[in-house]
Amino acid sequence: MKNYLIAPSILSADFARLGEDTAKAIAAGGDVVHFDVMDNHYVPNLTMGPMVLKALRDYGITAPIDVHLMVKPVDALIPEFAKAGASFITFHPEASEHVDRTVQLIKEHGCKAGLVFNPATPLTYLDYMLDKVDIVLLMSVNPGFGGQSFIPSTLNKLREVRKRIDQSGYDVRLEVDGGVKVDNIAEIAAAGADMFVAGSAIFNQPDYRTVIAEMRREVEKAHGSFH
Ligand SMILES: O=C(CO)[C@H](O)[C@H](O)COP(=O)(O)O
Ligand SMILES: [Fe+2]
């Protein structure tokens, strides 16, 4: 695995040409497809389900697909997304009655598992789970919509989680999602993130390749400060 990953969020892609636009973001240098699932219950928006993910696989998308579940309840959708071709599945622990069981379910279905923390969610869910997850995802906006501004207090939270991961010695990715742009990705990387979701910053520009290359240049500048 690369030492950091850029994950274009297709929430901001052209839904009428989703296969083509997703392929374009990967061809432009994206590592992972970030796939936002919203249920109009856990979050106030409604997006895509397993059928859409399967359609992307059938279209020929072979890059890892990072399913960010913003749904409640969580468990019933996990086998469906795994069957459809998900690679990573992350969920919000407060949306699951049994967090450990949900992580086990994701792994039993052959996917990597992660916990997602909203800006105001404390990190206590990590106390007994850091050895069981592959990804910790910190939301840097309140979940539900693309195009919001990065919440600066996420930087301290990233530093805290980076410290916990490094002290533990476990192989865990630290993902960040919301308001990530070329002009703030360096400080986000320096705070410890190694997986960067970016939706509007990539898809709202005509040339995805240039944005992703600029993001990489910024991350690589910052990486010396923690790797
Ligand atoms: O999970 C999400 C929102 O709930 C999206 O992944 C996120 O907002 C990406 O969009 P942007 O980069 O435009 O902020
Ligand atoms: Fe997301």
Automatic annotation (TrEMBL):
GO terms for biological process: pentose catabolic process; pentose-phosphate shunt. The active site is at 36 (proton acceptor), 177 (proton donor). Its cofactor is Zn(2+); Co(2+); Fe(2+); Mn(2+). Binds 1 divalent metal cation per subunit. It comes from the Bacteria. It catalyses: D-ribulose 5-phosphate = D-xylulose 5-phosphate. InterPro entries: Aldolase_TIM, Ribul_P_3_epim, Ribul_P_3_epim-like, RibuloseP-bd_barrel. Pathway: Carbohydrate degradation. Substrate binds at residues 9, 68, 144-147, 177-179, 199-200. Gene3D superfamilies: Aldolase class I. One of its GO terms (molecular function) is metal ion binding. It is an enzyme of class 5 (isomerase). The keyword Manganese applies. One of its GO terms (cellular component) is cytoplasm. CDD domains: RPE (cd00429). The keyword Cell wall biogenesis/degradation does not apply. Its EC number is 5.1.3.1. A divalent metal cation binds at residues 34, 36, 68, 177. Keywords: Carbohydrate metabolism, Cobalt, Isomerase, Manganese, Metal-binding, Zinc. HAMAP family: RPE. Belongs to the ribulose-phosphate 3-epimerase family. This is Ribulose-phosphate 3-epimerase. The gene is rpe.
